[in-house]
């Protein structure tokens, strides 16, 4: 137990001993006060400390967040057994060893059964409160931890996505300037034409690079313009074919994907008039494909690896569908997933978080209502037992409300922790997951 808990138990013991001394003690002297204080300390530290240590032990071995149902069952069994033992120990020390109002035989033969039973109910009430408080504290910690983790994941994903998008601008500019510098030496007139076309294309790059997705139509139109730019340099050495039906135009792909893939085709393959590089862009089901014949050139410089890796990573942040790469002896193909609608990442995430929060809130209310029911049961039943035995020790009518309400509490416990709506939801989720597989 923590030092703070010992201090609380000390002040509780002192307050209880003062109350009993001034209200129930006839001879108010120092000796009686010390006796009352000693007895109060025994009950407070044994019952309170014992339940506190039991709760701490269970928190370490079986945390609420990892196994709620198992923890609830073990908690109920353990607090009943523990409080039964602790109460009998405290009462034995009090009445047999300290006050000496009964012998050991008299204590265990039934003279103090009512007092033991009443004290056990009070101890169970305190223990139920401690376990409920522990559950609420751990639930708050878990909720805070999950919120922090989700925020970190969201920030990390957003930063990663922004980093990937920021690669596109300098990457395109650098490669375009390399092409332009080559054209200046080879064909100055073509270099002028290339410069005019490049300004138009670069405007598109600046407009689209901050978007998560663009329509297939926009990407195809941009790719055609970029192909004209490449034709300016390579002329008959490169052939481009576009075969994308118009019904796929309103689907979505990541921006500048085709430009990066076209750039890769040119970079990694040689192209001549006698052996032209053939690049085909077409749709295949739910994918947009770009395919070229393999005419691998020797790489003078090591590739930066930005193009294809950039596309794969951007798709991974937006959808679960993968980018497929197919390579044969004479062909290389990349398949880009075409998305039917723009995934509203932030909105859907907020909606998921909101729905999860509402479910968690509902769950907390259910568990809280159960613990309030349990605490009320222990309190009221203890009071009824006391009234019944105090007024009529022969007619034990208290069994009827104790058993009746007890069945209700047990049913409530099974509903919350075992076979209620939460169990149904788990089964539904399991069946749906199996069907998906």
UniProtKB/TrEMBL annotation:
Keywords, comma-separated and alphabetical: Kinase, Membrane, Transferase, Transmembrane, Transmembrane helix
GO MF term (any one): phosphorelay sensor kinase activity
InterPro entries reported in the protein's UniProt record: 2TM_dom, Bact_2-comp_sensor_kinase, HATPase_C_sf, MFS_trans_sf, Sig_transdc_His_kin_internal
One Gene Ontology cellular component annotation held by this UniProt entry: membrane
Domain Signal transduction histidine kinase internal region, residue spans: 159-237
Classification via Gene3D superfamilies: Histidine kinase-like ATPase, C-terminal domain
Domain 2TM, chain residue ranges per copy: 358-433
Superkingdom assignment: Bacteria
Keyword Lipid metabolism: no
Listed transmembrane segments: 7-26, 32-51, 72-94, 114-135, 370-391, 397-419
PANTHER family xref list: SENSOR HISTIDINE KINASE YPDA (PTHR34220)
Protein name: Histidine kinase
Native source species: Chryseobacterium culicis
Organism lineage string: Bacteria, Pseudomonadati, Bacteroidota, Flavobacteriia, Flavobacteriales
